[in-house]
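Listing S7. Sequence submitted for prediction.
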Amino acid sequence: MHTIDQSSSVKERKNMTNSTTISGFLLVTFSGNPEIEILQASLFLVFYLVALTGNMLIITAISIDHSLHSPMYFFLKHLSFWDLCYITTTVPRSICNSFMHSGTISLWECILQCFALTFSGYAEIAMLTVMSYDRYVAICFPLRYEIIMDTTTCVHGVLAAWIIGLISGVMHTTATFSIHFCGPNVIHQFFCDIPQLLKLSCSNDYIPELGVSAFMCFAAFVCFISIGLSYTHIFSTVLRMPSAEGRAKAFSTCLPHLCVVILFFSTGLFEFLRPPSDSPTVLDFLLTVLYTVVPPTFNPMIYSLRNKAMKTALRKVFKERQPNLFC
């Protein structure tokens, strides 16, 4: 009995030693082939440049075009900002690691990455919910739209997104990095993924993080239900419109937002439902890319291709920039 107790205490001391000596992690993707890593980094670079260009163009166009100074585009500008934050959190570091053939990331960088990813992700969910409410008021109560969606309401909506993102980031990051990490500090992902970090827990220290995750998933589900209810009322109102032109105009402003919502929530749902893998496959990698890289990259395209006002504003931006290219 004494031998068992002694071995248990030795094991506990070893776990505590491992948990205190971990100063970083090793990010490992599905393939250790250098050529495939370079190909992955090149594709990520293309995606990132497209996302950076598209979202910056939207932010610039809305900022300089006075015809777009309305609540809908005010929220869209902030959504593009969160898209930039969301993809910048993970992709640039992954590109550098692949080109330098080094997957090491320090503990503090990992903490910052988890916080920034959760912060921007939940802020984007909140912003999409606010935008659905804006479209609901615009379609269902057009005569009262300017009264309901005044400057104060718009500012409060953006502040709410910031606060929700901040609270979510602090809760997730605090709960995740309050656990003791044991064993090999290898994360089978191209960024510090929280489910992968929980697998490195020494014991049941990860239970508080599971509670936080369950609570935040419930909050995201409430946002999704709110968006669904808003669009149920929107489509019910649009289909009763006598004018075909009015229905087309309403759909042109609502469909891009609905596409973005479906893209963001469906890709996030894939990540939430799939169990974390000890030996990552190409499918695991692609599913992760779907919810971290694809939405910020394609959101600007969805809004600019389906929105006439955005296309007109973007043309103005290019026309104003062209003379400067030859100066």
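Caption to Listing S7: primary sequence and predicted structure tokens for the chain studied. The mean pLDDT is 81. Residues 107-140 form the longest helix (34 residues).
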